[in-house]
């Protein structure tokens, strides 16, 4: 009887001490995790509503409780992974110790650990976000959020250079994101075969080189 009461439509009664809103939030998280498992392993094209429900061990009714369609679920998966990655960067950038190079290396190493600790994260961020048409619009918005985070680091005078203005920083943040996206895509995909330490060091040097680009004085 308890199971039927929990699954009855519109029930707001606590079940085993858990309220209806919390149960719904948990089911939504189960669906996102299931979508992440499928998307990060076989790609966005493999994600179906029924497949996600099987993976999450939930009925189809619960899918539509949280998402209008599979496209909305794909966006939720991408957003969750992007937010996690962005949080890793922000945490690394907020540490006060060291100079600009130390800061950059710490951030790159932390982010590299994030995407290699679970390879599905890298696939969602650097492969599916670029290849899945359902993610194009939201993916572009998330790129802007990532570049804003990168710009925080590039505003360090010893990294960006004393003569850099805000437009230099914004342009360089875009360039850094583009370079890093393709570098990580190539490395995680096995097209670039070097160890992690060398990859991190190379990425750090790419960031430092791009961060110094300035058209401010020439435009003036």
Automatic annotation (TrEMBL):
Supply one GO molecular-function term: DNA binding
The answer, when asked if Ligase is one of the entry's keywords, is: no
Keywords in alphabetical order, please: DNA-binding
Residues of the region (Disordered) are 1-23
- Lineage top rank: taxon: Bacteria
Q: Which InterPro entries match?
A: Homeodomain-like_sf, HTH-type_Tx_Regulator, HTH_TetR, Tet_transcr_reg_TetR-rel_C_sf
Q: PROSITE patterns in the record, alphabetically?
A: HTH_TETR_2
Answer yes or no on keyword Cytoplasm: no
Where would I find the HTH tetR-type domain in this sequence?
A: 25-85
The record's DNA-binding region positions are: 48-67
Q: SUPFAM superfamilies under this entry?
A: Homeodomain-like (SSF46689), Tetracyclin repressor-like, C-terminal domain (SSF48498)
Instruction: Report what the protein is called.
Output: TetR/AcrR family transcriptional regulator
What organism is listed for this UniProt entry? Prauserella cavernicola
């Amino acid at each position: 009887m308890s199971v039927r009461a929990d699954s009855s439509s519109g029930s707001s009664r606590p079940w085993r001490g858990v309220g209806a809103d919390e149960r719904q939030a948990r089911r939504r998280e189960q669906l996102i995790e299931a979508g992440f498992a499928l998307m990060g392993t076989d790609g966005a094209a493999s994600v179906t509503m029924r497949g996600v429900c099987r993976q999450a061990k939930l009925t189809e009714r619960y899918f539509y409780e949280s998402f209008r369609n599979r496209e909305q679920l794909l966006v939720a998966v991408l957003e969750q992974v992007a937010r996690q990655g962005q949080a890793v960067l922000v945490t690394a950038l907020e540490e006060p110790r060291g100079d600009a190079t130390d800061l950059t290396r710490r951030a790159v190493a932390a982010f590299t650990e994030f995407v290699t600790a679970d390879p599905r994260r890298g696939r969602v961020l650097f492969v599916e976000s670029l290849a899945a048409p359902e993610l194009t619009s939201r993916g572009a918005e998330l790129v802007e959020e990532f570049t804003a985070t990168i710009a925080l680091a590039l505003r360090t005078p010893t990294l960006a250079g004393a003569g850099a203005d805000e437009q230099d920083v914004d342009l360089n943040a875009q360039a850094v994101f583009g370079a890093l996206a393709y570098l990580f895509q190539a490395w995680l995909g096995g097209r670039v075969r070097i160890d992690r330490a060398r990859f991190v060091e190379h990425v750090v040097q790419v960031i430092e080189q791009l961060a110094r680009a300035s058209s401010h004085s020439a435009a003036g």
